[in-house]
Amino acid sequence: MDFQIRHAVTENVKGDGPEQFRETIQDAISRGDEHLLPGLGVLLEKWWQNTSEEEHSKFTEALAKAFQH
Questions:
Q1: How high is the pLDDT of residue 33?
Q2: Is residue 40 packed enough to be buried (19+ CB in 10 Å), middle (13-18) or exposed (0-12)?
Q3: How far is Cα 2 from Cα 45, in angstroms, rounded to an integer?
Q4: Are 13 and 24 spatial neighbours (Cβ–Cβ below 8 Å)?
Q5: Which of 21, 33, 55, 65 is a plausible cystine mate for 51, CB 3.0–4.6 Å?
Q6: CB–CB of 9/42 below 8 Å?
Q7: Residue 47 contacts residue 63 (beta carbons within 8 Å)
Q8: Cβ atoms 9, 39 nearer than 8 A
Q9: Could you give the C-alpha distances from 29 to 32, 35, 40, 55, in angstroms and in order?
Q10: Residue 39's pLDDT is what?
Q11: Which domain holds residue 34?
Q12: What is the distance in angstroms between the CA of the first residue and the CA of the last residue of the chain?
């Protein structure tokens, strides 16, 4: 992923609250535009870097279940 994308996304959401993040994520998903996927990846990367191993396990378990269908 291009560093400029990380920087742009970070600057765009800096200071956002939980509801704004929810809206950003829901909007990106509902649009279905593939060019928005790197931005969601930046959000995931930041979340991953700032959460515990327990949260990582819960998340990866949920992903595994979601992709079993």
A1: 93
A2: middle
A3: 13
A4: yes
A5: 55
A6: yes
A7: no
A8: yes
A9: 5, 11, 9, 22
A10: 95
A11: 3-66
A12: 28
Residues 1-30 as b or e (16 or more Cβ within 10 Å = b):
eeeeebeebeeeeeeeeeeeeeebeeebee
The contacts of residue 41 (CB under 8 Å, 6+ apart) are: 1
Q: What is the DSSP code string of 16-45?
A: --HHHHHHHHHHHHHH--GGGHHHHHHHHH
pLDDT of 1 reads 54
Domain count, the chain: 1
The reported pLDDT for the residue numbered 2 is: 57
Q: What is the pLDDT of residue 6?
A: 93
Which portions of the chain are predicted below pLDDT 70? 1-3
Residue keyed to tokens 């930046």: 42
pTM: 0.87
